[in-house]
């Protein structure tokens, strides 16, 4: 079963995700980030224009795009995508969206990032119940 951490009260999801990804990259993790395409595009741009000394290598895999070569998959630690792609073999998953994805079966560790927006809170509660019903280990870490 996966460990699922709900990070709630995140007022700036984009900034939070960028900081979390830079931390995970420095730790040597392989991470898949999920969310709506417009948000992932903004995150992609933010990661490319970050401070030169803080470069965070990543690839955005657009919906319907073919998977990159095996060597690129092996070399790339961070992926931005809409749905889980098992061939990427990422140990961690980060969900920035409202959709309930079956991330607990795809990753050992999952971070569910939840903003204080009422729609996001309601979607987060539904995702909590989904993970709970599957028997995953759940943690709650408010970010306020």
From TrEMBL:
InterPro entries with a match to the protein in the record: DNA_pol3_chi, PolIII_chi_sf
Cited SUPFAM superfamilies: DNA polymerase III chi subunit
Domain of life (superkingdom): Bacteria
GO molecular function per UniProt: DNA-directed DNA polymerase activity
EC number, UniProt record: 2.7.7.7
Pfam families assigned: DNA_pol3_chi
UniProt KW keywords: Nucleotidyltransferase, Transferase
Keyword Transferase: yes
PANTHER family: DNA POLYMERASE III SUBUNIT CHI
Protein name (Swiss-Prot/TrEMBL): DNA polymerase III subunit chi
Source species: Ideonella lacteola
Organism lineage: Bacteria, Pseudomonadati, Pseudomonadota, Betaproteobacteria, Burkholderiales
């Amino acid at each position: 079963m996966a460990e699922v951490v709900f990070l709630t009260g995140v007022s700036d999801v984009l900034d939070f995700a960028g900081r979390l990804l830079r931390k995970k990259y420095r730790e040597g993790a392989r991470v898949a980030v999920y969310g709506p395409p417009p948000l992932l595009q903004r995150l992609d741009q933010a990661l490319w224009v970050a401070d030169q000394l803080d470069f965070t290598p990543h690839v955005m895999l657009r919906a319907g795009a073919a998977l990159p070569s095996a060597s690129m998959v092996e070399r790339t630690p961070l992926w931005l995508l809409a749905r889980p792609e098992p061939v990427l073999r990422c140990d961690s998953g980060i969900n920035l969206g409202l959709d309930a994805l079956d991330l607990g079966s795809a990753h050992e560790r999952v971070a569910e990032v939840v903003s204080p927006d009422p729609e996001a809170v309601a979607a987060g509660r539904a995702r909590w119940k989904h993970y709970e019903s599957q028997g995953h280990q759940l943690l709650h870490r408010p970010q306020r």
